[in-house]
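Handout, section 4.2: multi-component inputs.
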Amino acid sequence: MLNTMLQAATGMAQFGGAVGAGLAAIGAGIGIGLIGKGAVESIARQPEASGDIRANMILTAALIEGVALFAVIAGLLAVLSK
Amino acid sequence: MLNTMLQAATGMAQFGGAVGAGLAAIGAGIGIGLIGKGAVESIARQPEASGDIRANMILTAALIEGVALFAVIAGLLAVLSK
Amino acid sequence: MLNTMLQAATGMAQFGGAVGAGLAAIGAGIGIGLIGKGAVESIARQPEASGDIRANMILTAALIEGVALFAVIAGLLAVLSK
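Output:
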């Protein structure tokens, strides 16, 4: 009985881990999407500033990527817990 | 009885895994969609900058794709857990 | 009683699988919708760049399609679990 309740808890952990990883991907998707949209539109408006635009685009996208990957790893660890 | 509660736990894990994978796909869809929309509109405004625009488009889309695929894999692991 | 709880667990997994597949379809729908909208509007504004626009449209739409199909497969596996 005790062992079974432990298994039920593991099921809940996997549930939360997968949902959390999905939520993190939503954040990264919307955030980096906004950055990428702004960057390509800015290059179209000012093509000679494309190097500068790309540098700033990568910088902010990497910041989002860092947090999101961290959260996905946390979700993955919860999924793999037993 | 014990075995059945174990099955219930697995059901919750599969529930969360599928929902999490769907959430990750929402993030990738909105994010890459924004980038793709911005890119084609930018090429229409400045066709001679299309190479530069495409490079930045692929770069940010790949960043989103990476996180989203990672989260979908986490969901898939939860679905396949037993 | 035991058998019934097992059925309930399977029901949760299938419920989540269907919802997750639906969420993935939301993501793909919004994302590819944004790209398609931008593409046809861009071709209307700059018809001579239509080849370039179509190439970029297909590229980003394929990226979204990849993640979304993966998530739908995860949902399908949860639905088919027993």
